[in-house]
Amino acid sequence: MYETLTYSGGIHKSEEIKELIDDLGGLILQENLIQMDLVINMAIPIEDVDKIKEKAKELLGEVSVAPMAGTEIAIVSPTLARHHLPHAACDISEYIRRFGAKDNMIGLARGAGKGIAGITRREIDLIEEHDLVIFALGSFKQCLIDKFFLYSDIDIPVIVTGAPDIDVNQLQGADKYVSGLGRIPRRLKRGENIRALRELVKTVEEVLDNKRREMISDPPITPAIFVKNAIEKQIPAIEDVISPTPVTSQLNGVRVKLDYDKHHSEVENVLIGDRKLKDIAEIKKSYMRDYILVNLLTESSIIS
Fold first, then answer.
1. Which end of the chain, N or C, is more open, meaning fewer C-beta atoms within 10 Å of its C-beta?
2. How far is CA 20 from CA 16, 23, 43, 260, in A?
3. Which residues contact 129 (CB under 8 A, 6 or more apart)?
4. Beta strand pairing status for 72-77 and 102-107?
């Protein structure tokens, strides 16, 4: 059993905590270097969490629980136009990253306006490559209710945000609704905005926990973090990827940021124990920049 943690500290002696993670049998899920500050999302055996906290204290760093680590979340705005972006959606994105999530911003091709708004099959397929989606909508109650068709056909959990108070049952296809986050033409720094962001984080954690509980009855044949680790060790081309998190963990798989046509055979032949990855996973071309998407098969599908 693993606990997901976030370490924040300086770059000085940072190799010591990385070596400790490896010694404890843990895994680094994501590593970000911002000037002289280092942020590491990790998965650590529960019984060894105190050892990580002790080392962090020694290095004058901080450790916190990262409940969203190992997940990939889509944040969808009706368009990428100025009146829909950048404020609320971008601040939502920045805020949930603090809790370990890897998120991707998506703007719909023609999501603006009640009369012409729409979503294509390709956009739905791209969104469904994630663990969860947040639709960052606007400030008018009737507009939010009328735009249910943007997300009603999406199979992954859907959280809708907007300004007014609305019963989620009025939003056909939404799993959860968080108010107080409408179209705001400034940074979300005021007290009511921070409270709304905290409520959103609480809601995301709840939805992810429910999804994890559902997966317990028929889990992937191997944890996604082990697959991530194997790919990083066995495919040299990963070291040349300059995008953040070249191998991004999801609840039931990983996204590998290599071109599918050039590298899919290498990914298919990665060894997970005594089996090749292609024998325990569905490997296909992602709708995001032709990356490689690995969806792990469940235990029941392997047995059958």
1. N
2. 6, 5, 12, 34
3. 72, 74, 255, 286, 287, 288, 293
4. parallel
Q: How far apart are CA 194 and CA 91, in angstroms?
A: 10
Closest CA to 196 of 92, 279, 285, 298: 92
Separation between Cα atoms, residue 172 and residue 216, nearest integer Å: 28
Give me the amino acid identity at 240.
D
Residue from 195, 153, 199 nearest 176 by CA: 199
Give the Cα separation of 97 and 289 in Å (integer): 22
CB 215 within 8 A of CB 300: no
**d(Cα 274, Cα 131) in Å, to the nearest integer?**
28
Eight-state DSSP code of residue 168: G
Let me know whether 37 and 160 are in one domain.
no
Q: Tens digit of pLDDT for each residue in 251-280?
A: 999 999 999 999 999 999 999 989 999 999
Helix, strand, coil shares of the chain, percent, nearest 5, are 40, 25, 35
Q: What is the pTM of this model?
A: 0.88
Side-chain-side CA neighbours of residue 126 (13 Å): 19
Same domain, 209 and 83: yes
Q: Tell me phi and psi for residue 132, to 5 degrees.
A: -160, 155
Domain of residue 126 covers 72-215
Query: What is the tens place of the pLDDT at every residue in 162-213?
Result: 999 999 999 999 999 999 998 877 778 888 889 999 999 999 999 999 998 8
279 and 245 in contact (C-beta within 8 Å)? no
How many whole angstroms separate alpha carbon 230 and alpha carbon 65?
A: 24
CA distance 151 to 283: 26
* Number of structural domains found in the chain: 3
Q: With the CA atoms of 33, 34, 36 and 38 taken in that order, what torsion angle do they form, in degrees rounded to the nearest 10? A: -40
Query: How many other C-beta atoms are found inside a 10 Å radius of the C-beta of residue 93?
Result: 19
Same domain? 199 vs 99: yes
For 194-240, where are the E strands, in sequence order?
A: none
